[in-house]
Amino acid sequence: MGEELSKANWKIYITLSMVVLLLVISMFQSFQIIELKKSGPTGNVLAGSSVQSAGAESYTDMMARMHPDQVAAQSQGTGSQMVGGC
């Protein structure tokens, strides 16, 4: 009986330790989020968010690179009659 009680206590101890660890981590992260909100967005964060960044390829360039057979068929004017699919 005493051994079963100690095993049960051990499981409770581990469970409570994990709950406390999760609470400590969530409190730490909430303070980090508060500090980030206070600092506000910087120019560095928003600098790379434009739609067409320097060195980025256009949609047609991407299509030519990823699907050369479809681009060749469209340029010949035969156009695919397939609906849906890849």
Considering the chains and any ligands shown, give keywords for the structure.
mainly alpha
Describe the structure in your own words:
The chain is mainly alpha-helical and 86 residues long. It has a domain at 1-36. The protein is built from four helices and no strands. The chain has helices spanning 2-39, 43-47, 59-66, 68-75. The longest helix is centred in the N-terminal third of the chain and has 38 residues, at 2-39. The relative contact order is 0.04.
Number of strands: 0
| Structural class label | mainly alpha
User: Main sheet, how many strands, which sense, barrel?
Assistant: none
Low-confidence stretches: none
Overall shape: elongated
Short structural description:
With 86 residues, the chain is mostly helical. It has helices at 2-39, 43-47, 59-66, 68-75. The protein has a domain at 1-36.
Per-chain topology:
Elements: H1 2-39, H2 43-47, H3 59-66, H4 68-75
Helix pairs in contact: 3-4
